[in-house]
Design a protein that fits this description.
There is one protein chain. It contains 38 helices and six strands. It is an all-alpha fold. The strands form three sheets. It has a two-stranded antiparallel ribbon with strand order 1-2. It has a two-stranded antiparallel ribbon with strand order 3-4.
Length: 908
């Protein structure tokens, strides 16, 4: 069996000519294409065996009937494939694979390509319509070789286009592998170098402007050497087009989860041949030699160069996808660095950036970033010579406008942004320049999104698309379906260039370099915030992969939350960490509050998806630095909005998942805030910087607002078990919050700092905020509140019943927090609320004692407590022992949460 055939979808082992597993390959082709393929096969069989190895002039200028038929059928099959691809990408792929499944045709095409890439410039075809005479006429056989070269490249391109997540049929990959093993790219590279030398020689021979030559009457004046220059231009455009098309095809094949062997062959061929470097060099030479759009006799050539430049971007992007596929396969040790070295080659990177900048300048009329002004008109951007808008609107399905943008323009912009991502960005391109270009592309995405938003808001047919573009200063508009991918790669490129110099914290905080870096990063956050605005359509059609870069940016600064602690002690720096400072300067805190509010209104929206991704794995890290260092009114708005999301009681499903994520973040924030309270003593704050004091005061406010805004909503959510898909949330709230509330009560009771005359949670948290002189003067009392107040909070949340709900499945297998954790919680609550625990245990046999979440008595029964205690220490016998354990274990637990160890002796 041929390598890799057994695992290929759509391939039947033992039947080489099968595409879909049910029919022969030729049967999947349309009838006209099938007839052309059969005629081509018969014509090939009539040709001599050594036909492809002979010189193009071996048989003179005549052509046999078989040669004419071969050229005719190649053209016919190419038209049929174009029609199939226009119908759908899948149909085009099937048709191209069917042609390659014919072994006779495939072998003959391989021989033709091998001969075509080894033609010398003097043997290449001459387009008499373009050249206007001069040079000898090439026989039909030479045209067959070059047409077959382009035909094979297009055939493999079509077969490998479309979704890269699916594997190709085995014979398609084998065909591409044979091309590589025949050293096709190496031969094409030598041909590109020879054509480039020929073009340079023709340019040197051409007479400078103003030099006249003798001419006949009625003959148009021609500069000296113009015929040779025209031929050299034509050869250059055609050769670079064919070489780039073939390179794109073989790299596209690697992106379809190709096997390791193919990755090795491709990487070796690309490195040995340097075909991308030679193609980029020849393309730039040909474009400069072609001249400006207004010059005579170069419009057709500019169209060919436009297609070739688009293929340069396509080849670059397909090589990037091949490197991504390599990373998934892990084919060759060090291969990823070799791919990056290929993509950062000087000629290739220069050509990609030149065309990308030309496309951006054409689209928004902005600065050239150092691109020579005389070179800019020589870069073809659109088929109309660059004078008209590169976008035309048409009425699409369901009355929506659609835009037709040249694929060349999209390839230019996209490949330029990819070329800015380290480590593909060479050292000669500065980080600041790369960041400016990436952000400029992002603003083009944003402007296009705003135009499409106005089009969508208006009635069908009532909006002048070109007028909206003119109002935004745009000459080109990115299509709506491509906005998400462009936004994603733009953020990725900007992040990569900012990340390369990340490290400006600690002693350098506040330095001029720190300030400049923060301002640069703030521009990125402003752009991301604009993408996430409700009226922006950039991310409305985004896939999960395209959202990953947005999510990466949102959680990037979350790692800096660890800088707020030193050896487990809360010691916030006077200035916010560098990424947090950039996020705040870029307005991310109000953006996050808007995301939270929109997610609460529509749990199935894009904002809810991003929010859940942001808070699921890192529940408190993204929020705490912003709440401590952000503007007070924005921080308060975020706290209130989180409480509103938790208090919503309508709907299940998506709303349930959102509340679970936001509730988990609220619990985690309160846990970290309670753990930081013992570190924030009055004497420590007095010696700290103003920024540190402000952060500590903000942490106390977080405890105050969290207990008042979040805790009642969290407990209310646990009262609705039918609204949750599982009981883990109730257990998480109980094991996360109740022990810390109880520890605060125990610590305050030991110091006898209770304050009377206040009610519920508002009085309890007054001490946390340092609102009274008495609380501030009592050290830990200032961070713990009064024992009666904390005791009231425990009663308001019904901590005993909440733990009882968690113990309901105890003794079976329903616990998610573990018996050890739950037993520790019971000990702490028993020490803080001994009377309520005794009443719950005494009511264990009462079937009618139904309170929060059903009967609370049975879970506090001695049997359940013994089971929990046995899971913790191996021996326990009743509630009284649990209470003793509570006095002993509460100290250890509170130390783990940052509460003073002096609380270990408190309780009933």
């Amino acid at each position: 069996m041929t390598r890799g055939q057994g695992n290929r979808p759509g391939f039947v082992p033992g039947n080489r000519a099968s595409i879909d597993g049910n029919r022969p390959a030729q049967d999947v082709l349309p009838a006209p294409a099938r007839a052309s393929l059969l005629r081509l096969r018969r014509s090939i069989l009539r040709l001599p065996t050594s036909w492809s190895q002979e010189s193009v002039y071996a048989r003179g200028c005549g052509a046999s009937g078989s040669e004419k038929l071969v050229l005719q059928e190649l053209s016919a099959i190419e038209k049929h494939l174009a029609l199939a691809s226009k119908s759908s990408v899948f149909e085009g792929r099937i048709a191209a694979a069917a042609v390659l499944a014919d072994e006779v045709v495939a072998k003959w095409l391989l021989r033709l390509v091998a001969a075509a890439v080894r033609l010398e410039p003097k043997d290449m075809a001459v387009d008499t319509a373009y050249a206007q005479g001069g040079g000898r006429t090439q026989p039909l056989r030479g045209k067959i070789l070059e047409n077959a070269y382009i035909f094979v490249a297009g055939l493999l391109n079509t077969a490998a286009s479309g979704d890269t997540l699916s594997q190709l049929p085995a014979h398609v990959t084998d065909f591409a592998s044979k091309l590589l093993r025949m050293h096709t790219l190496q031969a094409a590279s030598r041909q590109l170098a020879a054509v480039a030398d020929s073009l340079l020689a023709a340019l040197a021979q051409a007479a400078p402007a103003g030099v006249e030559q003798p001419q006949l009457e009625g003959q148009q004046q021609q500069p000296r050497g113009s015929a040779a220059l025209r031929h050299a231009r034509y050869h250059a455009a055609r050769t670079v087009f064919a070489a780039l098309r073939l390179t794109t095809a073989v790299t596209l094949t690697a992106g379809h989860e190709a096997e390791r062997q193919y990755h090795y062959e491709l990487l070796t061929s690309l490195q040995d041949s340097c075909v991308l470097e030679h193609a980029a060099r020849l393309l730039l030479l040909a474009e400069e030699a072609c001249g400006k759009p207004g010059e005579a006799d170069n419009q057709e050539l500019r169209k060919m160069l436009l297609k070739a430049s688009g293929l340069l971007g396509a080849a670059y992007l397909s090589t990037v996808r091949a490197s991504d596929a390599f990373r998934r396969v892990g084919a060759v040790t060090g291969g990823l660095a070799r791919y990056n070295s290929l993509l950062s080659g000087p000629c290739l990177h220069h050509a990609v950036m030149v065309h990308g900048l030309a496309a951006l300048c054409f689209a928004d009329g902005g600065p050239t970033h150092g691109l020579p002004a005389e070179l800019l008109p020589c870069i073809p951007i659109s088929f109309d010579g660059g004078h008209q808008v590169a976008a035309s609107d048409s009425e699409g399905r369901a009355g929506h406008r659609e835009v037709e943008v040249p694929t060349v323009f999209l390839h230019h912009v996209r490949s330029a942004v990819y070329a800015l991502i380290p480590p593909r960005r060479p050292a000669v391109v500065s980080r600041q320049a790369a960041l400016l270009i990436a952000l400029r592309t992002g603003r083009l995405v944003l402007a296009s999104s705003q135009v499409w938003g106005k089009v969508a808001a208006a009635a069908a047919g009532d909006t002048n698309l070109h007028g909206l573009m003119h109002a935004k200063g745009l000459r080109a508009l990115l299509p709506l379906k491509d906005l998400a991918s462009f936004a994603s790669v733009t953020l990725h490129a900007a992040m990569g260039n900012l990340r390369s110099t990340r490290g400006l914290w600690g002693p350098e905080a506040g330095s001029p370099a720190w300030e400049r870096w923060v301002e640069e990063a703030a521009e990125l956050w402003r752009l991301a915030g604009s993408f996430l605005a409700p009226d922006c359509m950039a991310l409305h059609l985004a896939t999960a992969a395209e959202l990953s870069n947005v999510e990466e940016l949102l959680v990037w600064y979350a790692g800096e939350a660890a800088l707020l602690w030193t050896n487990g002690v809360f010691t916030p720096p006077a200035r916010p960490p560098v990424w947090t400072a950039a996020a705040l300067a870029g307005g991310f805190l109000p953006c996050l509050e808007r995301l939270m509010r929109r997610a609460g209104e529509d749990p199935g929206s894009l904002e809810a998806v991003l929010l859940c991704s942001l808070l699921r794995d890192k529940p408190w890290q993204p929020l705490l630095p912003l709440l401590l260092y952000g503007e007070e009114r924005h921080a308060a708005a975020l706290v209130v909005t989180m409480g509103k999301v938790l208090r919503r009681r309508t709907g299940l499903g998506e709303h349930t998942r959102l509340c679970e994520v936001v509730g988990g973040a609220a619990v985690a924030l309160l846990r970290k805030a309670f753990a930081a309270l013992p570190s924030m003593r009055g004497d420590a704050d007095a010696a700290a910087d103003d920024g540190t004091v402000a952060a500590c005061q903000r942490m106390r406010l977080l405890v105050s607002c969290g207990v008042c805004e979040w805790l009642p909503a969290l407990v209310a959510q646990t009262q609705r078990p039918a609204a949750w898909e599982c009981a883990e949330f109730t257990e998480f709230v109980a094991s996360g919050l109740v022990p810390m509330l109880a520890c605060q009560c125990i610590a305050a009771r030991e110091l006898d700092t209770s304050q009377s005359g206040r009610s519920s949670s508002s009085a309890a948290v007054e001490g946390c905020t340092g609102a009274t002189e008495a609380s501030a003067a009592t050290g830990i009392a200032g961070s713990s509140g009064g024992s009666d107040d904390w005791h009231r909070v425990l009663l308001e949340v019904d901590a005993v019943a909440l733990l009882g709900a968690c113990m309901k499945p105890a003794g079976t297998q329903g616990l998610s927090v573990g018996p050890h954790t739950l037993a520790t919680c019971c000990c702490i609550v028993a020490a803080a609320c001994p009377q309520q625990v005794r009443r719950a245990a005494a009511a264990a046999g009462a079937a009618t004692s139904a309170t929060l979440l059903g009967a609370v008595g049975p879970p506090w029964s001695p049997e359940v407590l013994r089971w929990l205690a046995s899971g913790q220490s191996g021996s326990a016998s009743g509630c009284s022992r649990e209470e003793k354990g509570g006095r002993r274990d509460s100290g250890g637990s509170t130390q783990g949460e940052g509460v003073s160890s002096s609380s270990s002796g408190g309780g009933g």
